[in-house]
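Practice problem: predict the structure.
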Amino acid sequence: MKQPNTLTRRKLLQLGTATAAALPIAHILITNPAQADDLPHLGSDNPTAVALGYVEDTTTVDKAANPRHEDTQMCSNCTLIQGNDGDEWRPCAIFPGTVVSANGWCKSWAPKA
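Answer:
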């Protein structure tokens, strides 16, 4: 009878194979991380952007549709923004695979802590 927490040869081989397969991918990601310059700007036709009312300029937010919005709220001071402070276009956790304007805004805006 096998004990439930023992490492069998089969499990060891599976783990070794998975690790060997992941190493080249990890190497590429570490040595060549995606840069904001490589990503497309978030388009106004993006369904998530439309649903969240994303705009590239926070001063153009429809105040009637977003009464709690303030002009000081922008992507650059949102907790969801990623990338380097000061960059004009940066990745955002809400919109993977694209970059947003640092001066932009969407309904998911949350202040940095």
